Amino acid sequence: MESKNPFFNTKSYNNSETVHDAVLIDYNQTMSLSGTINKAFIMLILLVAGAVTTWTMTGSGFNPVILIIGGAIVGMIAVLVSTFKPELSPYLAPGYAIFEGLFIGGLSAFFEAKYPGIVIQAVGATFVTFFVCLGLYKFQIIKVTEKFRSVVVAATLAIAAYYLITWLITLFTNFQPVHYGNSLMSIGISVFVIVIAALNIFLDFDQIERGVANRAPKYMEWYGAMGLMITLVWLYVEFLRLLSKINSRD
């Protein structure tokens, strides 16, 4: 079993042409952990820049719906292309960060207008979760075994299937999915989804380490950074949804 995140699957890393020489390995041409971290920071800066742009425009009275939809669509296209063409990641990853930032900025502005203070809470919760997972992984308190990987992937796929099916049903019927609203059941589902999203971070760390160990090509640093950013965006959106449900009960 592999990470649900399309960027973190064993096939993508194993199929990447290993850069080597019969006599001497040029480590400047292979994937490194520091290089992946640096590119993840670059993507984070670009994402924040895109988010601030939409946020500022929304505050000035601009309707961000077009930017939200456009950012989501372009971001998804970048994800799909990079999944099948990892070598294009150095070009697509920065673009993904910017357009996903436009999406996140507009979405955050909507939530903030309805529940003041929710955005900083969601951002804080996301980064705290990330660093806790990083610490647990670094000190091997939680290890990524085959059983761990299979359980997380199965749960993630189940969540994706549930979201897709309920969304399609609501398009043609008046059916109200159980995860809508602010009931205790709905809040419980959000908590469960956040836990699964957080567990995916461990899989992401593990796949990045595998890429480094297998001396994947240099462009896989962008590929790895992009995949990790996808997981963080998912986690942030889920925190927004959970906090909005809790605040709406007050």
From TrEMBL:
Keywords of the record: Membrane, Transmembrane, Transmembrane helix
InterPro entries the UniProt entry points to: BaxI_1-like (IPR010539)
Superkingdom, taxonomy of origin: Bacteria
Transmembrane spans: 40-58, 64-84, 91-111, 117-139, 151-172, 184-203, 223-243
Name by which UniProt lists this protein: Bax inhibitor-1/YccA family protein
Organism: Flavobacterium stagni
Organism phylogeny: Bacteria, Pseudomonadati, Bacteroidota, Flavobacteriia, Flavobacteriales
